[in-house]
């Protein structure tokens, strides 16, 4: 059977080729009844429009770029799935590109990528989502951009974030309610500014309960499993070790659990461990990790929604959306 063409769809639906093109490209101002009739013809004929033809007709690539610099594969996959859940039905494909946020030539590299790939819009994840110069460079190129999990609402673009400080406050309070007074904290990577909000939640919860913030119980991590292991080593081998450790992400919490096992410390009776994010490994390790579930896929899907709104109308106002995280109780606390 010959491959169906746009002419076949137009003939079956009883409309013009231009109308079919407008439906395929999801352009506005097509009556619902006409759109349904064309879609029925497309489905019956099994018509698949040429991507290059769509691009030429609309002067768009129907391609969105996801730029990331995050070593966690599960995080990137969650963001990818969230964006695709929104973009695929809208007829957009996804270009996923890793970046090095410490590269002094980052802005030019991204600008070159945009020109070569002709993407219609960009989604940035941490720590790129806190790079104001990069955001302004994209805006200057007239590229719609949405950021995920920035530290605050100060950037001149739409964003989707979670309640990091509030969630960390709640987790610290949970540990205190379990009887812990000396709670060690493993800081996140200093370049990930949203991590600072989690630390503030930890500090405020202690102060609210009248517990002094002990600098000796706060150790720098780098968001990786290895950094969590060595940070926990500093805490648990100190002269006055904490009875609980709250790591600002799950990768580091998993490293702390490994170190506790190595030292023969029983979890949670001798040391409790909590994390943040609820990555898949959080329920796969033993004991299961008590953590904060960050709805990463939902945040990514909402970011894609905001981006698609901008692509439909350049007059779409900047929007700031928040998605709440939740505590997940498992065996480590």
From TrEMBL:
Keywords annotated in UniProt: DNA-binding, Transcription, Transcription regulation
Residues annotated as domain HTH lacI-type: 4-58
TM segment ranges: none
Superkingdom to which the source organism belongs: Bacteria
Record SMART domains: HTH_LACI
CDD domains linked to this entry: HTH_LacI (cd01392), PBP1_SalR (cd01545)
Entry-linked InterPro entries: HTH_LacI (IPR000843), LacI/GalR-like_sensor (IPR046335), Lambda_DNA-bd_dom_sf (IPR010982), Peripla_BP_I (IPR028082)
GO MF annotations, alphabetized: DNA-binding transcription factor activity; transcription cis-regulatory region binding
Pfam family, one: Peripla_BP_3
PANTHER family, per the entry: LACI-RELATED TRANSCRIPTIONAL REPRESSOR, LACTOSE OPERON REPRESSOR
This protein's name: LacI family transcriptional regulator
């Amino acid at each position: 059977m010959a491959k169906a063409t746009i002419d076949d769809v137009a003939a079956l639906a009883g409309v013009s080729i231009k109308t079919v093109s407008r439906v395929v490209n999801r352009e506005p101002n097509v009556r619902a009844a006409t759109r349904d009739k064309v879609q029925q013809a497309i489905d019956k004929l099994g018509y698949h429009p040429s991507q290059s033809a769509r691009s030429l007709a609309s002067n768009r690539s129907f391609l969105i770029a996801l730029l990331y610099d995050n070593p966690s594969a599960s995080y990137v996959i969650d963001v990818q799935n969230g964006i695709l859940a929104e973009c695929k039905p809208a007829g957009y494909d996804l270009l996923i590109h890793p970046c090095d946020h410490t590269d002094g030539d980052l802005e030019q590299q991204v600008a070159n990528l945009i020109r070569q790939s002709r993407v219609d819009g960009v989604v940035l994840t941490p720590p790129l989502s806190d790079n104001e110069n990069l955001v302004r460079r994209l805006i200057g190129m007239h590229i719609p951009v949405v950021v995920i999990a920035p530290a605050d609402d100060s950037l001149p673009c739409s964003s989707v974030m979670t309640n990091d400080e509030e969630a960390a406050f709640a987790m610290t309070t949970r540990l205190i309610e379990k009887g812990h007074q000396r709670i060690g904290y493993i800081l996140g990577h200093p370049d990930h500014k949203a991590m600072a909000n989690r630390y503030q939640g930890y500090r405020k919860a202690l102060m609210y309960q009248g517990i002094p913030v002990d600098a000796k119980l706060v150790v720098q991590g780098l968001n990786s499993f290895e950094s969590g292991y060595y940070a926990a080593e500093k805490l648990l081998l100190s002269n006055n070790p904490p009875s609980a450790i709250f790591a600002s992400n799950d990768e580091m919490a998993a490293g702390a659990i490994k170190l506790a096992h190595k030292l023969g410390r029983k979890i949670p009776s001798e040391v409790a461990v909590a994390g943040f994010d609820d990555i898949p490994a959080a329920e796969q390790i033993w004991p299961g990790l008590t953590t904060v579930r960050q709805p990463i896929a939902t945040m990514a899907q909402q970011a894609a929604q905001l981006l698609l709104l901008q692509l439909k109308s350049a007059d779409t106002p900047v929007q700031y959306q928040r998605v709440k995280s939740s505590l997940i109780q498992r065996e480590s606390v």
